[in-house]
Amino acid sequence: MHQEIVDAATACGQLLRSQWLQGPLPYRRKADDSMQTEWDVLVEERLSEVIARVDPAAVIIGEEASGGRFRSSWTPGTSMYFIDPIDGTGTFVAREFAYCVSVTRIARDGALSAVIVRPAYEEVCVIDGSGIHCVQFGFSVPLLPAALPRFSPLQALTSFAPGDLLLTHSQMHRSVISKFPGKTRSFGSLIYHALSVARGGAVAALLPVGEPWDRLPILAIMGALGGELSVLHGAPLTVPQLLAQEFHGSCSCTPMLIAAHPGTRALLEPMLESVCCAARMMSRFREMRGELDEQAQG
Q: Three-state SS for 29?
């Protein structure tokens, strides 16, 4: 990632933090009912300007300018940038801590890199082929341990404890039946969740199928540390699959995604079942029982 882009993302994080500290933060509802503030638009515009200057031939996709929907693909030899100006706008508006700024790049050779800023913690993480490198440009909100210069690799777990943390979105109960023995929480930002998994603060992160600007950074985080972003009960995702929205789970329902170490994922998946798949299985069971009853009566 070009240093000017990292610097621009850092400056945008500082701008957001200053507004976040002052409050209140007015917002409006977009067509999809998600929140948008003037800062979402401003940050995306500033980052787009810097990227266009640094890499004039690049394709730039931002959440706000795209209208919240993206359907395309990456062509070898093309550089693409995806901007999520505020991942966790609701958290930002509520003046809570878990919101992020992210820029993810697909290089001309397909390599993935990203810069992620956590303004509330005054932290900047740069992700590339050599790993995840984090620096803190202030210490006024020391609610988490200071970031290491480089994250330690993810570890495969062999068991779960009651104190273990599984991170997900707030509506997970509508999509997944969970038998996870630990705690399940949502902090409002999926990218923040992925960084928590990378740190070892959570065993895994579950997330719904979404858009590339908030999934590609997670793919970069996991890929840098030997982890995976996978379809729940399905296969690990690649950049082309993610862009094309090719998600294939164990049934035809819209799948969930999981970010974790492969070994931890193998341990966790048997504890998680799609509500939709379970409902279909129960419906089919009732149909089969009805067919058997009819045969017995005949």
A: strand
Whether the Cβ atoms of residue 125 and residue 10 lie closer than 8 Å to each other: no
The structure tokens listed for 283 are 């419906």
Please report, for the chain, the start and end positions of each structural domain, with discontinuous segments joined by +. Answer: 3-136, 165-278
Q: What is the pTM of this model?
A: 0.83
- Rounded to whole angstroms, how far apart are CA atoms 185 and 205? 10
Fold assignment, 3-136: Fructose-1,6-Bisphosphatase; Chain A, domain 1 (3.30.540)
| pLDDT tens for each residue of 3-47 | 999 999 999 999 999 999 987 888 888 877 788 889 999 999 999
Contacts of 52 (CB under 8 A, 6+ apart): 58, 60
pLDDT digits (tens, 9 = 90+) for 205-261: 998 877 888 899 999 999 888 889 998 888 898 888 888 776 555 454 557 889 999
Q: Which fold has domain 165-278?
A: D-Maltodextrin-Binding Protein; domain 2 (3.40.190)
Residue with tokens 């999520």: 84
What H or E segment, with its residue span, contains residue 124? strand 123-128
